[in-house]
Structures are given as C-alpha cells and as structure tokens.
Queue: 3 jobs
Job 1
Amino acid sequence: YVSVNGSVIAFARFGLGFLFLAMFILLTGKGNVGRTKPSLALVFSGVFLAICVVCYSHAIKLIPLTEAVILLYLAPLIATVLGYFFLNEKIGFLNAVLLFHHLRHTHTDQ
C-alpha cells in the first residue's frame, strides 16, 4: 500500500510533465501550440484521463501498488474487448499482435 496523497501523484504526473513540456516549447520556439480551439474529443479525452488518475490514486490507497498497476495496464485489453462488443469495432491482425505484445511485456516486467 502507498501512503502518498493522491494530489502528490497527480502533481508529479501532470505538473512536472507540464513544466518539462513548457520548457521544451520555449526552448524550441514552438510557441504557436495551443492557439487553436480544442476539439470535443480532445476535451473528453482530458476529462477521462483526469478520472483515470483520480481512480488510480484512490486504488493505490486501497490495494497493493502492484495490483493497481496491473489493473492500469489491463486498460487497453478491456477497451479493445468492450469496443469490439459494444461499438462493433474491428480488431485487425496488427492490433491483436500489438495488444498481445503489450500484455506479454506488462506481465513479464513485474
């Protein structure tokens, strides 16, 4: 179990990521980033990412960290299966191979 506050985890992931990205943008002169209106899909992506981080930080308080990480890395498999059954998405050969590769390396890295 991890006794770190979820706010610290969220800050470490997004706050530091933002700082490094901002430094990169300033150093490379790519300052025109962010001057366009974000699409609705991008907004929803951000909302669901925030929900994911909140759920993950709550999970590591309730269950061992290794189990929380395994559940986090199972997300691509769960999304693929749900998309196949509920959204009639096709799973091509390349997608299946990459998904299997991801799951195999997730399992062996632990």
Job 2
Amino acid sequence: TDEATKKQFKYISLKNIGSSATVNEGKEMQNNFDKTINLKYPSDLPVLYILASESVDPDPNWIPIHEAMLQDVNQGKLVVLEGGHYLHHTQSIEIVKQIHEFKGEVSGDN
C-alpha cells in the first residue's frame, strides 16, 4: 500500500474511533467474549484464520488461542500475515491468495 493510501486509512480510522458504534463495541466487548467463550465451530465447517503478525508478536497466547478454536474442525488452517489489525487494507492480494488456496484444499482441487 502506498503512503497516500496509508494516510487515508489512518484518517478514516481516526474519524471513526469516537463514533457511537465504536464506543458501544468497546463497552460490549467483555460481554460478547463471555457469551461466546464456549462456542465451537461445527466440525464440518471449514475455517480459515488469517491473523496479523502485529497481534501475534506481542502475545504468545494469540496463536494457541486460535489453534484451540480449530481443534474440533475437520478442515482448519491458520495463517499469519505481516501487518496490523487492518490486514484487508494492506494484504488484500495475499488474503485472496490464501482464500483460494484454502478453497482448493477443502474441495481437494489443490
């Protein structure tokens, strides 16, 4: 992503950070975690996790937490891409590649 685009993303993020939706998200975060802590994916649901390196690097539990969520699925994959929380802004081409690759693995077309 070029510098001008990165700057635009930054301004959009800063503009939205104080919105009522973002504030509500922060207030409800713990409640939502508590409600979903014991949920599991159906075993026949293929699950692809794409994690950001900037989330993984400072937290040694981040990968094991996500691996645990994949343990009961028949087809699960975890990929770590370089970047921050908004990977879809900075790694969109690689995300598409990973999705297509996973779809091939799931369908047996790889």
Job 3
Amino acid sequence: RYCNMQTRAIAGLGASKLSKLSSYTLVAIAKHNLFNRFKFYGFLDKFEDFCLKWSDKYSKPFKSVYESTKITRSRPKISELDDSDLLMLKNIQKLDIELYRSARDNCIRS
C-alpha cells in the first residue's frame, strides 16, 4: 500500500490502474511527467535553494512558499536502522529510488 508512493503520485495514475502496470512502465510514466510536465522539482537536501528559486521565479516571498508543519519526530534515523531493515526498505521503495536517481542525474546535466 505504501510502496513507491512518489512514483505513483508523479505518474498521476490511480492506485487501481497502477497494479496493472509493470514497474518499468510506471517508472517511465513518472519520469516523463517529471521531466516534461513539472516546471520545477527539487530535493530535500537542497530544499531551501529550491524554495528560493521558486519564490524568485513567481515573485512570491520565501515564507509563503514553505512553512514546516508536518514533522515526524518518532521516525527513526537511517543510522538507527539495521541492515535487514534498510534492505527491506530499499526493496519496497525501489521504484522511488530509481526515479530519484534519474531526477538527480537530470538536475546535474541541466
């Protein structure tokens, strides 16, 4: 149910349709949408840079672009997970990881 949620969201397809698509097709749709339909996308580790660029492009003050309201304090840090948990998470989220790597590579080339 919670597998590859970013890929599913960016692909823009309902959950019932997703089960009928191969992993390859789902990632291909998500990549197409991300690279051709989104004006902006960014990464959490560069989130402030992304917000500044977005606010500059649309002449909106930075504060109105981002306000941290959803913080999960109980989520364990990666360093607190054992190897088997990390492997399980990587397996469950493999399409999201592939999409992230493609997006990161695309930003580096741009």
